């Protein structure tokens, strides 16, 4: 398993996520034929030998809580997009970027995290590595 002390996780996450950019958004999807947000995070973390549960709310129950000001590459950021509960998760990539399977954009993307932080409620940030 990768560890923060033995690897540059930002580079490892970049190499893991880059080939998945553009994979179509598919509700319930958990493979390179289509991902939803938590299927994407589960798939990426499996590449690091970390087994995450299937749904974003279940993933949020695991890991170590960190603040948004202390986010590091690989941390998962959980959002409430308006329904009152966790409804989206993305991987913080460093440099103000987040990788996620974006239903509104139709595919896996890397976007500026600032828009999401300003438009949705952050439920929390969790660290798994």
From TrEMBL:
Transmembrane feature ranges: none
Pfam family, one: NLPC_P60
Entry keyword set: Hydrolase, Protease, Thiol protease
GO MF assignments: cysteine-type peptidase activity
Positions of the NlpC/P60 domain: 6-129
Entry-linked InterPro entries: NLP_P60_dom (IPR000064), Papain-like_cys_pep_sf (IPR038765), Peptidase_C40 (IPR051202)
Any one Gene Ontology BP term: proteolysis
The family this protein is said to belong to: Belongs to the peptidase C40 family.
Name this polypeptide is given: NlpC/P60 domain-containing protein
Native organism: Aneurinibacillus migulanus
